[in-house]
Specification:
CATH topology: Neuraminidase
Number of domains: 1
Number of helices: 2
Distance between the termini: 42 Å
CATH architecture: 6 Propeller
Strand content: 35-45%
Order of helices and strands: HEHEEEEEEEEEEEEEEEEEEEEEEEE
Structural class: mainly beta
Largest sheet: 5 strands, mixed
Radius of gyration: 21 Å
Helix content: under 10%
Strand order of the largest sheet: 2-6-5-4-3
Oligomer: single chain
Number of strands: 25
CATH class: Mainly Beta
């Protein structure tokens, strides 16, 4: 009996020691960049399954591989390779597309779990990603020319095919957003210079922008990202170096001029309708208010918290937590927008 108690005690001490060491390493590496604005509070950075497991031994916490078919083996892919897009679902899990790996990573900090969505029958180069209020996740795939849908368990659902044909409706789907109130789905079809509006059954409700593109109000040249907030949507009009704000019917409201952008840039809006745009060339994030006035920017080249290398996709959740993909550093960073302690950011 005493031997049994001693073994249990040693196991508890081992787990506590590993967890404590992990926490010390995290606090050392999570020193925010001194140039980060005061109302932005750094919360965490992460890049692999080990980050979300909190340093526990594999026997205590094992990852769950999410596949479209039957489970075969533990996932080999357990770290970000070439991350691009990012979103969260109603369960506070963080989903990150990885076009280079042909996969989507799922980080669950609430339950200390990591999983990976690998679907070789469909996913080739996943780029944009968004989730609806039921936890369904929509993934644009530039190589497949389609939008794929998965439920909260990673099960493949019918793709968004607006027509009855087996051919994809889209030419080059890029960014995607879901309006949580109306359930409208907005897809940037970059090569067609349009934003396609669909319902959750794949029916086309509208399309914004003329075929062939243009430079006028409500016209696009290679729109690559879209964000929905209330009665307005923002579209990153990459070819025209601007963000256009449209109403729900696609009518032009205003534009925000950018000094430059490219197709790797990300876009988001917060609950005040401030617009956030990433600049991959200068490795910074630029923030504009609802009227288009520049509020601030932050970021620089580097690998410390608040620094970036190849900054790309961004997402702001309902708790006003800002998620940033730091692509070439192969990680994501999380910030609290209002500067609070970030306990609501998962």
């Amino acid at each position: 009996m005493r031997n049994h108690q001693a073994i249990v005690f040693l196991l508890v001490m081992l787990v506590a020691g590993i967890s404590g060491t992990s926490g010390q390493n995290a606090s050392t590496s999570n020193t925010p960049n001194k140039d980060t604005p005061e109302h932005l509070r750094f919360v965490r950075q992460f890049s692999s399954a080990q980050d979300v497991r909190r340093g526990l031994p594999p026997i205590v916490n094992r990852s769950l591989d999410i596949l479209a078919g039957a489970k075969e083996k533990e996932p080999v892919l357990e770290a970000l390779q070439h991350p691009f897009g990012i979103t969260t679902d109603p369960s506070h899990r963080i989903w990150i597309t990885d076009p280079g790996a042909g996969a989507v990573h799922i980080f669950d900090f609430v339950h200390s779990k990591y999983s990976v969505l690998q679907d070789p029958n469909h996913l080739r180069s996943p780029l944009g990603i968004a989730a609806d209020r039921d936890g369904n996740v929509y993934v644009t795939d530039i190589s497949a020319g389609n939008v794929f849908v998965y439920d909260s368990a990673g099960k493949f659902l019918p793709s968004l095919r607006p027509s009855r044909s087996h051919e994809s409706y889209f030419e080059s789907p890029w960014g995607i957003a879901v309006d949580q109130v109306t359930d409208r789905i907005y897809v940037c079809d970059a090569a067609r210079h349009m934003v396609i509006v669909l319902d959750r059954k794949g029916h086309v409700l509208a399309h914004f922008g003329p075929r062939g593109g243009g430079r006028g109000p409500g016209e696009f040249r290679y729109p690559t990202q879209v964000a929905a907030a209330g009665s307005e949507i923002a579209v990153l009009d990459s070819g025209n170096s601007r963000v256009q704000i449209l109403d729900a019917q696609g009518r032009f409201v205003r534009e925000i001029g950018l000094t430059g952008t490219n197709r790797r840039a990300g876009l988001a809006m917060d609950n005040k309708k401030n617009v956030y745009v990433t600049d991959p060339d200068l490795n910074r994030l630029v923030v504009f208010n609802h009227d288009g006035d520049r509020l601030y920017d932050f970021g620089e080249i580097g690998n410390q918290p608040g620094q970036f290398s190849g900054i790309s996709g961004i997402w702001i959740d309902s708790s006003q937590c800002l998620y940033v993909v730091d692509s070439q550093n192969k990680r994501a960073q999380v910030f609290r927008i209002d500067g609070s302690d970030g306990t609501d950011c998962h």
